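Human:
Care to share another protein and its fold?

Assistant:
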Amino acid sequence: MRNGRIWLAILAFTCAATAALAQDDLAARRAAVQELLVARGEDKLIAATIEVMGRSYVERYEKSHPEMTAERLKSFEKAIETNLDATKGEYLNHTIDIYVAHFSVEELKTAANFYKTDLGKKLVSINPSLLSEGEKYQMAWQSAAITKALNDLNSPAKAPQ
């Protein structure tokens, strides 16, 4: 009976220690992700993303709703940007959770250290403009693929049976 209690106490201690270590590791990984996000200029990337997303969505919306006035479209774009800005903290928390699930503390610190190098700093400084420039080509690429798919779908010779 006494041996059973000793083993039970050892088991309880082991479980508690394991849980504490897991919490410490989780906290360390979350801190390492936050360091990485700061190092890679995540705040600037999010700001550029918000601007690009609002603008590109409104441009697509305008094509299907030509009756919308320029003033209403600008108001719509501003509302999208405001809503995205208001929820960016939630977005960042999800981003942190994703990184925590896939990377160790050491890997995260290595990535953060890269962004502290000259090349990493250069990448951070031009990333927002890369995002903006790339978005133009991405939208044209998507639009062409969607238009072709719609044309193929509406073509009597290629219509699904």
